[in-house]
Design a protein that fits this description.
Blueprint lengths: L3 E2 L3 E3 L5 E3 L7 E2 L10 E4 L2 E4 L4 E2 L1 E6 L13 E6 L13 H4 L6 E2 L2 H10 L5 E6 L8 H13 L3 E6 L5 H7 L5 E5 L5 H8 L3 H11 L4 E8 L7 H14 L5 E5 L13 H11 L6 E4 L8 E2 L6 E6 L2 E4 L2 E2 L2 E2 L13
Helix pairs in contact: 2-3, 7-8
Length: 333
């Protein structure tokens, strides 16, 4: 176990501490840990006990994050640890998020070295994923600063539940992010996640325009599949930028929630609703669905996708190969 003093906390009376990394703002008594189970109070000092502890390391297509408009067709080294600062009963990665699992220590210099070697395999950098990366803050920022030096990309696949100060410090070293907006009501976040939507929305708005962002929304029957809620979320995203890609993901039973999978008809209806506001709405966990990316000017296909088999068919030098329009909503390289 790699234990270092945590950043972003406040000392209180009676050796209590207040963690200020995420909006949970856990007030932790001596000998206790926060909701994330990663940060613990030892004698009035807050420590993080997963620094450099890697539970999962793999090479993935960047589309698996999912990121569809960020270096399409490329690979990315993907790393995760354990723990999470939300508590979602439907968690698709609960074995990492809610359980302590075996890890191996990989210090920042070693992980960066692995990422540099992976360039030979068409990799663009590192994605921190599988569990919530923001609670790995100290480790990630140590790595991301080095990645920027070597011209490699750093990606977060996150729930967006982080306080403003640590986010502002981290963001200059982050190139792309997929933010999981769980639902578009506070009641859902309170009931199912032990969190709040407000801070997630604020962070999406803050990150937009600064780095590449895409959004994922898992549609759960009877929980967040009301068409009016789906439309409100799409309209909100469009008010930020209608070119933000939205990934609507099909729910399957997982962890504590054992509802039936989302109906395909529900997914298609949600996509149709969102397309009234957003230019790019993709469907996840639905094999065989058309997730191609068209040119907004002429409608010709720029990128074809068959699962993770991706081909750039109509994009060259940042322009549509058919009509010559500038394509500033897809990052390639």
């Amino acid at each position: 176990m790699s234990v270092i003093e945590a950043q972003y906390y406040e000392k209180l009376d009676q050796n209590r501490v207040k963690c200020k990394l995420c909006p949970q703002n856990c007030q932790i008594r001596p000998g206790k840990e926060g909701l994330c189970r990663v940060r613990f109070n030892d004698g009035g000092t807050l420590y993080t006990n997963n620094y450099a502890e890697v539970a999962s390391l793999a090479m993935d297509p960047v589309e698996k994050k999912p990121l569809y408009h960020f270096y399409p067709g490329r690979q990315i080294l993907s790393a995760g640890t354990w723990g999470c600062n939300l508590s979602c009963g439907f968690c698709q990665n609960y074995s990492l998020a809610r359980q302590k699992v075996p890890t191996r220590e990989i210090v920042p210099e070693t992980l960066v070295k692995i990422a540099r070697q992976a360039e030979a395999d068409n990799s663009i950098g590192i994605a921190f994923t599988y569990n919530e990366p923001s609670i790995w803050f100290e480790y990630i920022i140590d790595i991301a600063e080095k990645m920027k030096f070597y011209g490699l990309k750093t990606v977060l696949v996150t729930n967006g539940y982080i306080e403003k100060d640590p986010l502002a410090r981290l963001l200059p070293f982050i190139d792309g992010v997929n933010i999981d907006v769980k639902a578009f009501t506070e009641s859902f976040y309170h009931r199912n996640c032990k969190g709040r939507l407000k801070e997630v929305k604020e962070n999406v708005e803050y990150m937009a325009g600064k780095i590449h962002i895409e959004i994922t929304n898992l549609i759960i029957p009877g929980e967040n599949d009301d068409p009016s809620e789906t439309e409100a979320m799409a309209a909100w995203l469009a008010s930020i930028n209608p070119n933000i890609p939205l990934h609507l993901s099909r729910y399957h039973p997982a962890y504590k929630m054992q509802r039936d999978p989302t109906q395909v008809s529900t997914m298609l209806k949600a996509q149709k609703i969102c397309r009234q506001h957003l230019n790019f709405v993709y469907l996840g966990n639905l094999p065989g669905i058309n997730n191609n990316t068209p040119c907004l000017e002429c409608g010709q296909v720029l990128i074809t996708r068959d699962a993770y088999n991706v081909k750039i068919t109509g994009l060259k030098d940042g322009k549509c190969s058919y009509c010559g329009a500038e394509i500033d909503y897809i990052t390639v390289g």
